[in-house]
Amino acid sequence: ILEESVKPYVKVSGTLAETTLFESKFGGYPYLPIDQEHPKDSNGQPMMLLAQLNLEEIPNIEHMPQHGMLQFFISAEEDLFGADF
Fold first, then answer.
1. Pick from 27, 43, 70, 82: CA 20 to 30 A from residue 51's CA?
2. Which residues cross the membrane (predicted)?
């Protein structure tokens, strides 16, 4: 049963390196189009980039786009970075 439930995935890992705005990364400055505002939390404060995946840099997975950015942001204003327990 376990083998039947396995889905395609990409294992993400990182190394310490300088990156450009367009590369996959953890933290740093995100790529944002000129006409897009920086994401804000519920208090109106700019959010921090947790991770950015450039889809052209990762292996192709069926039903996933092959181009564009997948970005994850978190609240930077709280000790728990927006986690609510």
1. 43
2. none
Residue 9 belongs to some domain of the structure: no
Whether the pTM exceeds 0.85: the reply is no
| Domain annotation covers residue 45 | yes
Angle, vertex CA 61, rays to CA 24 and CA 15, nearest 5: 25
Cα–Cα distance between 9 and 28 in angstroms, integer? 24
Interatomic CA distance for residues 43 and 40, integer angstroms = 8
- Residue 12's nearest CA partner among 20, 24, 28, 27 is 24
In a domain, 57, yes or no: yes
**Residue span of the structural domain in which 53 resides:** 20-31+39-85
SS3 of residue 56 by DSSP:
helix
